[in-house]
Known about the structure:
Number of helices: 11
CATH topology of the largest domain: Purple Acid Phosphatase, chain A, domain 2
CATH superfamily of the largest domain: Metallo-dependent phosphatases
Domain Calcineurin-like phosphoesterase: 1-218
InterPro entries: Calcineurin-like_PHP, DNA_Repair-Maintenance_Comp, Metallo-depent_PP-like, Mre11_N, SbcD, SbcD_C
Strand order of the largest sheet: 6-5-4-1-15-16
Family: Belongs to the SbcD family.
Protein name: Nuclease SbcCD subunit D
Number of domains: 3
Domain Nuclease SbcCD subunit D C-terminal: 268-356
Structural class: alpha/beta
Radius of gyration: 23 Å
Order of helices and strands: EEEHEHEHHEEEHHEEEEEEEEEHEHEHHH
Amino acid sequence: MRILHTSDWHLGRSFHRVSLLAAQREFLDHLVATVREREVDAVLVAGDVYDRAVPPLAAVELFDDALHRLADLGVPTVMISGNHDSPRRLGVGAGLIERAGIHLRTDPAGCGTPVVLADRHGDVAFYGLPYLEPGLVRETLDAPAAGHPAVLGAAMDRVRADLAARPPGTRSVVLAHAFVTGGAVSDSERDITVGGVASVPADVFDGVDYVALGHLHGCQTLTERIRYSGSPLAYSFSEAAHRKSMWLVELGADGGLSAAERVDCPVPRPLARLRGPLEDLLADPDLARHETAWVEATLTDPVRPYEPMARLAERFPHVLSLVFDPERPPDDPLASYAQRLRGRTDREIAEDFVAHVRGGRGPDAGESVLLGDALEAVRTEGEDPR
């Protein structure tokens, strides 16, 4: 069975205030053309269809058009909700849409109920595990504890129990939206840390033939059978080196992958991250190749230059982001403060603040739990598990 694995469309998202709607439309044109030309048997979308819970109308129209075109091709599509989606909104009309071969899986309670497709070798069971927010789905899944490993483990227990009751030789595919240990992150993914643990071990997916992951925006292979497709477009300058693509995989008769190919996505405009003093960036002839790119410029001038953005735009008309990182001596107090904050989580910064105001004594165990609960309450405010 030939499967096209994609994820993290983030329809409706902008790139530093530049609309990406036209680029997202071009990607969906490319996806539909790939399905038709490569004779794809099933399309998988591993979450984050939209960029936010209430997407703009233009994004909804784009999604609606994509569903109609895929349905017209007669190719089954299985998709799950991600942490950016509203499960209830995305899942509206799922039962009716399923008649057209579009299978939306947004309800955590349905993790163990697969979409069953068949080829000449027999059945393939596709299990859709939408993004599982631990605080919202723990009771639904009867998970033994809070946290991503526990709830995803409980969901996979349901998958394995259903699979064990199916005829021998039934092959299996899981779609999941999660941060799996070993995956490389970028700046554009929303933090899903709960209780200090955001990632889940890869062995939570033991017992299935292929795992189509979403959430991380870089295409990557964790094991031969566990892969991220990554986002089809770059959504932050941290993705400047990414090769945006989809996975086209062949599921063999025995459940193993007989082929795995990266299908490149259209690039609306290259990204460039430039660093140095302003005058050097304006004069360096080696930077001419970036004059048509979307540019992030990090200026290292010890004193902020006059009108830097306007001056950069004269050479790089598509400059979008300006960062100041003055080169300072190691003993400069401002430099040491920035170094202390770099790479710290919100919880770590909050605990450091408590230690600062107490003369070095940080929060005790109970206070640390309260801080974690408060940060988690703010992060999940307004979310709905369904």
